[in-house]
Amino acid sequence: MGALRPWARYGLLAVAHLLALGLGATVLQALEGPPALRLQANLRAELATFQAEFGACLPAGALEELLGTALVAQAHGVSSLGNGSEARNWDLPSALLFTASLLTTTGYGHMAPLSAGGKAFCVAYAALGLPASLALVAALRHCLVPLLSRPGAWVATCWQLTPPRAALLQAVALGLLVVGVFVLLPALVLWDVQGNCSLLEAIYFCFSSLSTIGLGDLLPGHGSGLHPVLYHLCQFALLGYLLLGLLAMLLTVETFSELPQVRAMVKFFGSSGPVNAEDEGAILGQDELALSNMPPSAAAPAQAPAC
Amino acid sequence: MGALRPWARYGLLAVAHLLALGLGATVLQALEGPPALRLQANLRAELATFQAEFGACLPAGALEELLGTALVAQAHGVSSLGNGSEARNWDLPSALLFTASLLTTTGYGHMAPLSAGGKAFCVAYAALGLPASLALVAALRHCLVPLLSRPGAWVATCWQLTPPRAALLQAVALGLLVVGVFVLLPALVLWDVQGNCSLLEAIYFCFSSLSTIGLGDLLPGHGSGLHPVLYHLCQFALLGYLLLGLLAMLLTVETFSELPQVRAMVKFFGSSGPVNAEDEGAILGQDELALSNMPPSAAAPAQAPAC
């Protein structure tokens, strides 16, 4: 890989990325194609049966029109089922959860703005709020990442590990801790509390929230006809989970990205300009520098940057 | 602000963030509450009318059951309307778009896995693919950000601007270029091509995609009964847009985060440990260091880090 010119390396990386996308797509196609077709067939059969049994009394298109309205309404989070005992759509807890899903870029989509004003406000709010959130996380990072590196320093001295190994061990421990506390534990709680979802679905939901993918196909408490107070408690719990869990996730990602091993790997693929103290310092902060004394990567040949 | 202890500053920042969340929620509640209630009322009225007119022939609950099935199917992207001429759900272009929405964390949610195997695969795929994507972006950043800083260096010499001003001008110009090319231009194209959406909705969609919020309430071409070939072209266009647009967005965010002005602001709120060359280098890369010679921020008093 070191012998290839930089543009060839990037090209290879990009192609590998696209191949990975394709591979994932093919696997999902194989896993999901049949269930989706079955669901579609069931739905069509139900529609056909319905039409056959009751079509005589229904004018042509009346049922489709009704279905269409109900589906459009659901796309914006308005439920057509239930007797209204569920909390209203844009009450404060739901709206808070929605704005949090905007600013964390999770974007569940179980609720979405209907009005032009609402859409315009969402764009403006996110355009201002996202940079502010990033700045907040950067500020918190300055404070928390050095705190997190202290256990590593202690372990390094106690067990006499080399600084890079101590950093790796610490990052892995932090990663496991965050996964345990912010994915597995909440998934177990959710699985226990919410009767109709499996442990896998609970883990799937927690992971999809914390990675900010936020598919939104499963939302705890949503549509389950809970008492409004309980439902609001669920929403506030989810809100807190989203904010704290994402902070934890971001700190973990930061910790991993500052590992000398990861830096070396990125450098290996990356620009091969002269490596010097400022470049090394480009990711390592003050405390991490104390931990990791690995010399500038020997893997990156000294060429002028030519991309 | 400088007189406050670090923990008080962070507390203030966190409170400000929560207040901003609350403010957004209140505004959206005011904007969206009434339209959602109206939609719900319309839907209930339609249901009631339907029941009144045809309820005699329908057994109790038959309609609700049918609606329930249709809504659940839609939540997973299976459409109950249309005569099947629309491309099948998990065909390759749709699956590609789905995996791209996973790896970019956009997560539209217009399609979602039904089977347990599919959900487990999504978790594993994203857990491996997201770090790989981040590493790819880090590698590309090494190459592209220095390239992007060259115009700034040229402008600095030609117009004899101070390096921080040249960096700011360059960042703003890059931001405007990216917004123009990746938000406004695609929105105009989408508005022109897709008959049933306004320019605001097109901008809203482009912004929601590039910010990775991905609410998924509007998806170009989806459900519009296009010819399958055209629909696939739409999907590939969206795929390319997502990947390139996000890369452009990330590079812009990176460029802004490396501005001395932004660094100073984050430092002002952030940890007030001793500032030195490694810390300065923590964000400035090699080429940016040449552009911005601002001394370590005087705003951060020299205290031992105490959070």
From TrEMBL, chains A, B:
Parts of the chain that traverse the membrane: 92-111, 123-148, 168-190, 202-223, 229-253
A biological process from GO: stabilization of membrane potential
Record's GO cellular component terms: monoatomic ion channel complex; plasma membrane
Sugar-modified residues: N83
Ranges for domain Potassium channel: 77-143, 181-258
Keyword terms, alphabetized: Glycoprotein, Ion channel, Ion transport, Membrane, Potassium, Potassium channel, Potassium transport, Signal, Transmembrane, Transmembrane helix, Transport, Voltage-gated channel
GO molecular function: outward rectifier potassium channel activity; potassium ion leak channel activity
Major site of localization recorded for this protein: membrane
Gene3D superfamilies the UniProt entry points to: 1.10.287.70
Pfam families: Ion_trans_2
Subunit structure: Homodimer.
PANTHER family, per database record: POTASSIUM CHANNEL SUBFAMILY K MEMBER 7, POTASSIUM CHANNEL, SUBFAMILY K
Annotated function: Probable potassium channel subunit. No channel activity observed in vitro as protein remains in the endoplasmic reticulum. May need to associate with an as yet unknown partner in order to reach the plasma membrane.
Family statement: Belongs to the two pore domain potassium channel (TC 1.A.1.8) family.
Protein name as it appears in the record: Potassium channel subfamily K member
The organism's taxonomic lineage, starting at the top: Eukaryota, Metazoa, Chordata, Craniata, Vertebrata
